Amino acid sequence: MSQPFAKLPAWADYGLLPLINVIVAFFVAGLVVLLVGESPIDAAVLMVKGALGSGDGIGYTLYYATNFMFTGLCVAVAFHCGLFNIGGEGQAYVGGLGVALVGLGLGSILPWWLTFPLAIIASAIVGALWAFIPAWLQAKRGSHVVITTIMFNFIGASLMVKLLVDYLKAPGSQAPETRVFGAGGQLPDLGWLLNMFGLNMRSAPLNISFLLALVAAFVVWLLIWRTKLGYEIRTMGHSPKAARYAGISEVRITIVTMLISGALAGMAAINPIMGAQHRMQLDFVAGAGFVGIAVALMGRSHPVGIVLAAILFGVLYQGGAEIAFDMPNISRDMIVIIQGLVILFAGALEHMFRPSLLRLFQRFARTKQQATPAVATGGGQ
User: Largest CB tally within 10 Å, which of 28, 110, 133, 292?
Assistant: First the structure.
């Protein structure tokens, strides 16, 4: 006999279940804070206040979230094809080369509204090219994309160090960074947007690449659920055998998907390079590529969920810095533990509460089915 609600409703699968996981993660994190002698309630208040209590706090939160949106979308696109691209860190890092070349070469010549689209194209192309080799090895040689993308993270980091130290470093400077871009290579901030809501942003680096990230999320939604290519990607992710039977080229879809994924990761470099630092420095990605994996898992690989999960991790980053500053017993390492707990419950243990939630929905459905005939009988009398 078939069971009602063989799977959870979409709103519960994409909304309620991740919410339960996050609540449990913060509960466990609260116990950790309690063990080090601090109040979990005070820590939570500090985190929310530091991340969302001022214009600068919100600016920093959304600045971090911008990076996580791009890398989360990068991972999600690959997920839909059944690929695990964990090379977003390296693809974003190398994608910064495209941004830097545009900023260095054209920042003093063109206005920002012309260099911005050129930087988008350049970063996307470089990020896609860096993802192409692992994609080709997976499609043509069967090399596992997880292994190759991990390797390319390290290769990309070494390559960027070499380029910054020997070729791109500003003349006369000892620091491994480029010179500051001209005015055309610097993106305007979004202080005016926060001012519309009565918030004053003084020093936060929030810039228009945040709006680009939202546009990218919408475009990914259109691609995955409203195009033929998106249908082929999802078919390959659900059943490679069925995709091959339908005439879909596994090699083509694997390579195209990884190129799109790498392009999204490469675009993440625009935010820190043109929007905040106005130059390229070492390690500007700062782990956003790996956080994107957790963001994609928590967001169920859906653009809306990814945007919300990215903002949550932005709150953790910015609010965590406030906690570490105001609570001496909670170090920056402790904040990393809290972030790790969120990743644990939202990622590795994402299905831990699914059976219980499914039984609850099934019980509710049976109760509703039993009540319906009784109501119908009563109405016929």
Answer: 292
